[in-house]
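Feature request, filed as a ticket because there's no other form

It would be nice if the structure record came with a short human-readable summary line next to the tokens. Right now we just get the raw output. Example of a typical job, pasted below so the devs can see what we mean:
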Amino acid sequence: MSYIRAQFVERDESGRIIKGSAAICEAGKKSHSVQKQVERLGKVIWLSDDGKSGIFLSKTRLGGVQFC
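Raw output as currently delivered:
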């Protein structure tokens, strides 16, 4: 099962994201503690409260990426 892993996300006083990166990861088939990175999403522009969707500035896709 794939999921978004956001790292080092920092917000300012108004709640806007000023720092952070994200990647799509996949849990291991034999053990869920083993994680494999599927794709780097890049800088976090917006992230939903539950962390399951967001908008990212991707280096690999050369532009903005939205995952829902």
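Something like this underneath would help us a lot:
The two ends are 15 Å apart (CA to CA).
Strands lie at 2-11, 17-27, 35-47, 54-58, 63-67.
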